[in-house]
Amino acid sequence: MSAHTIRTLEQLQALYAPVGEASIRKEVDHVHPLYRALIEASPFAVLATSGPEGLDASPRGDPPGFVIVQDEHTLLVPERRGNNRIDGLRNILTDPRVALLFLVPGNGETLRVNGTATISVDPELLDRCAMQGKRPQCVLVVQVQTVFFQCARAIQRSRLWDAGLPRRKVPSAGAILEALTDGGIEAGPYDEQLPGRQAATLY
């Protein structure tokens, strides 16, 4: 191990200044009405879980308000159609701890929620989370433990919402699959069919 590797909490804390009052006082154990406003404005969140097979962080998205604030201690997160890997859901079955990061387009601050989750197929909850007449596969019922906003520095440094930034060319989904399957999946047909397949299976 390198001599430059941080090994202790004391070494780590020496790198940073003391935590400011605002950074401490912004954390609460419930969904404050102002935090609720951020959740209800967010069309996108990242769900983080942990389990015996490893960690998972996966995106969740829908029109703003797709995560329902049932009360100040409970969130409802719909689980829609996807790739059927269910990595995060498998984790929750063995370790209910979850973390959510909410983003609001154009807003620098993000919102962090930590808590525990259960997986429900209660028909009433499925109906509440239906979209375009289609229910989700299940609903995560998140019991909130801590909520706080994250300062805007990461968004500012990344210029995430800056529409003037040039779009970077990246490999297509088909190109990645073709390379990883040694040509077993062809990039051209996959990429050509993907938009239609996604549009037909959003809900």
From TrEMBL:
Top-rank lineage group of the source organism: Bacteria
Domain (Pyridoxamine 5'-phosphate oxidase N-terminal): residue spans on this chain: 34-151
InterPro entries tied to this protein: Pyridox_Oxase_FMN-dep, Pyridox_Oxase_N, Split_barrel_FMN-bd
Pfam families noted in UniProt: PNPOx_N
Protein name per UniProt: Pyridoxamine 5'-phosphate oxidase family protein
Organism: Ramlibacter lithotrophicus
